[in-house]
Amino acid sequence: MESASHTASARLTAVQNHLTIQPCFQRHAIHNDQPTGPADLARERANASFNVEDMTEVILRGKENVEALKLAYQLIQRDPDLRMREGHHYDLTRAEDREQTMRQIARTIELKKTIKDPRLQQALFMAMAFYSESYSMRMYVHDMLFKQALLLFGTAEQQDKWMDDIENWRVIGCFAMTELGHSSNLRGLETTSTYDRATNEFVIHSPTLTATKWWIGMSGETATHTVAICQTVIDGENHGINWFIVPLRDPKTGKLLPGVTCGDIGHKSSRQGLDNGWIQFTSVRIPRENMLMKWAQMSPEGEFTPSPSPVLSYATLIPERFTILGGSQVVLAQTLTIAVRYGAVRRQGNHDEQILDYQTHQTSLMPGVAFIYMLNIVDRVLFEKWDEVAEYAQTDAGAFMREIPDQHGVSAGFKGALAWYVTEVLESCRRACGGHAYSSYNSIAGLIGDYGVVTTGGGDNVVLMQQSARYLITTLKWAQEGQEVVGSVSYFNNCKKILQSSKTSYQDPRDLLSHEFVTDVLTWACAKKATDLAAILSEAGKANFDEAWNSNQTELVRLADVHAWRYFLILYQKGIEREKSKPVYPMLKKMGQLMSTFALRKHLDLFLEEGYFDGNHAKQVRQLFLDQCKDLRKDAIPLIDAWAIPDFVIKAPIGKYDGNIYPAYFATVNAAQKSYDAPEYWHKYAKPLVNAPRPGQKKCGC
What we know:
The protein is α+β, with helices and mostly antiparallel strands. Among the domains are: 52-147, no CATH class; 171-306, Beta Barrel (Butyryl-CoA Dehydrogenase, subunit A, domain 2). The chain is built from 25 helices and 11 strands. The chain has helices at residues 2-19, 23-29, 37-46, 52-60, 63-78, 94-114, 118-131, 133-153, 156-167, 317-345, 359-395, 397-432, 444-451, 462-480, 495-498, 515-540, 545-551, 553-577, 585-602, 604-609, 615-633, 636-641, 647-650, 661-672, 680-690; strands at 173-176, 192-196, 201-205, 213-216, 225-234, 237-247, 260-264, 277-281, 284-287, 297-298, 304-305. Strands 1, 2, 3, 5, 6 and 9 form a 6-stranded mixed β-sheet that branches. The protein has a 3-stranded antiparallel β-sheet with strand order 4-8-7, with no helix packed on it. Strand 2 and strand 3 form a beta hairpin. Helix 6 crosses helix 8 and helix 11 runs antiparallel to helix 12. This is Acyl-coenzyme A oxidase.
């Protein structure tokens, strides 16, 4: 009886605690005329351990760029053709969103002709990319995919013919690669380009339904031309894939040209302002000169010269994949700004805590805060290298051929691994804001929708990870045969020496803060996993290779993931070395250390499985991660403020800079309320239900 009485008493106490008005409710729910958000954010900013303006200059690469971006945001906010004229972005219909996006593009092209300062031109594009993902993607399709294809695959003569029209949008381009039945498997594409010797033309044709070009941005309603990747058929023989410029629409009327059928994909999960579409070609004739012929050529006499390597056909995908780092910054910087500010403003708990002070909140958000800085630094390093390699395409074909394999392997691994992590951060931000992030008006749901295509645009990113793994297995074999390998895989040259140690020698947890130590640990993991998998595949032989690959597919993807994170950390360290003299360097280093611990923690199962770490090592890694997240939380607000994104760009009331979020949130929702009268469907369906007579009651005549 005493035990039962004690249990009942405990239950009553628990219920009483639930019903007791806690301090946070006493102060804020009942007497919420003094919101704490503005004071909380002011205190967070006052306690910053670094100068926010200095960090912004690092992000934007100079004070002049910071000033240019401020001016660009001001220009957008004041220009009625660039900003939202009325209402809220997430209330636009698909047609309204597309008209607005094309209006914004037309206006920026117009402004580009009058703005003489190249910094401001670039800043305007960057500001608009943050302001509208649909705008960003339309510009990306035209400038990165379509134009880059011409730069990488077109001859000097072809570039002279087309480039001015492309730069000035007299030609609006799209990029026709993926098909209804094929995405990342380019060798399986079905669209054909058949050479007609009699007319010196290529005939572009979609022979089957699954050959329909699918998900092609700007093909649905806008593009006048496309670069289409096709199987090249000459005298009945398939010579592999090549790129062809194909006109789609009459530039004067917008009508589809004979033999071209384009349609719209329809409603998507996001990016409604981008007209993704489909294309079918029915014996569309183009001149021989429309084949892009820097690497493969078709002479006027009808002689075909193939490219020196099939990998060149994929070269345009490399910068496209590298842009994942820049695109991820756009989405993550906004999402984390919203989630971190909300976490600092929202108070909940027995002691009225800021929810950002909870450990689970810190481990959810702080790695993401550090990660966007890593993306920013590595983005710069990657494109410096890619620009060097792309220049070789114009000046030194041999050097271009030597560099392309590693660039392709890195781009595949980075897009696969890093994009997967971005999606994790985005979802963590959504959950960290509770139910409020489910509202479109708080932007996070839309940003998640915008980013979704990145992990599936060419099929599941697992395909990219397998491309990276295949490159790793191949280059390891070359190194084992005595050939020197370079770039991201250069450690394979010392594979035997690396694997002489089967267990880590570290005892002091402070070793985990050393970039060199963490790199060595990840290098060991890559070398070990690659060597083991290569042995399995070699033993299987050619006859059973595909089966062996599939049986080890998960581990091959894990190899690619460890390799990608290892190289990502190396490039970040290389990138921040140039910032060593700046006051913000200690903070940049601290964020790199957090993400180094994150990478070890992410792959702890591998180290434990292989016996390289023991349980005590694993505990130390986990504890260090918790400590680092708690430490970085102190500067969370200044770190996201440094991205300098205005409220009108973020569009989320719960992410307002001043912290006074609730009046702004209510005002946003209230402004969307068009009427307080009962809607038509209420009278049609609800009214008969609520006025239905009860049993024995006469039917109401009202």
